[in-house]
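PROTEIN–LIGAND DATA SHEET

This sheet pairs a single protein chain with one bound small molecule, zinc ion, given as SMILES. Inputs appear in the order they were entered. The predicted three-dimensional arrangement of chain and ligand is reported afterwards as a token string under its own label.
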Amino acid sequence: MGRGTGLHAGKRKCFFFAAGFSLTVSDKRYNLSDTNVPTHPTLLRRRRAARVRKLVAQVPVLAGSLVRIAKHCGRPGCHCQKGAKHVGWYLTRPVQGKTQTTYVPQEMLQEVQGWIQEHRRIKQLVTEISELNRALIRAYVTERKRRGTRS
Ligand SMILES: [Zn+2]
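PREDICTION REPORTED AS:
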């Protein structure tokens, strides 16, 4: 039983580019009701083995999210002081309680997006494997109790 664990609703973020195409980041979290964690140790181990096999990064991984930010550049006399701000993509991630922001050039966006998605895929697998291992511990304890009362 996967009792007592948090259920997270899946959410998706959509990023739109000025050029007219969009990138979609799947931010769906591990959902227990979707996965239906089995109770039998053999099934748990089989499912865990399948997840562990997928636990290899296909492309480099990158922790963080892409956000579009409009900024004043601070250069004296730049048009952004009066008119439209400079709009660009930034990688953000929490580092020691603060948000670290890194500028990402337009031509790197798709590659960076791929790294971020791969990081999310690996993170999801780690969550699932952890949940299966937790279920294995519980199954072991349940079995030991059952045996203990009989012998
Ligand atoms: Zn400027």
